[in-house]
Give the backbone structure.
Amino acid sequence: MTEPGGDTSSVFQLLYSSHSRIPRPDRPTVLAEIFSTARSHNKGAEITGALLITDHYFVQVLEGVQDAVEGLYARIGEDPRHEQLTILETRTVDARVFPHWSMAQVSSVGHADIPLHVTQGVIAPKSPQHLTTEQRNLLTTMRNAIGADTV
Ligand SMILES: Cc1cc2nc3c(=O)[nH]c(=O)nc-3n(C[C@H](O)[C@H](O)[C@H](O)COP(=O)(O)O)c2cc1C
């Protein structure tokens, strides 16, 4: 049986950013809906990844079989809850960076799987010791993609 993240074949990774269209008061409810859908769908499709949520932007990494990742990205691109989707990077890696998360929530608010804290404009994981070097590097790329937007 293949567990998500348990395969040894190469993994396709897609990183994109987008601009949120979710009105601030609706965010907790809408984000909960997005994560619920994402997690159940991604488990079935053996997709893993992380979604960074900031005040105005999303940055998401999707990893899995290339067809599955590209198919999901096409569907996410149709979603009216965000706009201005921009692919930042696609690459093939030897192993998943977020093998244990069907979609990790990365945020300084709410119940994040990877909580961030912000001090004097610098955004960093609250517990970097719990993350691998690859996870820390990818999170840095994700944070840099949205510049100084508040998380
Ligand atoms: C920022 C963002 C990230 C999303 N991430 C995922 C995801 O990882 N997996 C997923 O299935 N849906 C994700 N969605 C939701 C999809 O866009 C879509 O609503 C959902 O897959 C249901 O698609 P369907 O209506 O075609 O069944 C995301 C939506 C947004 C706005």
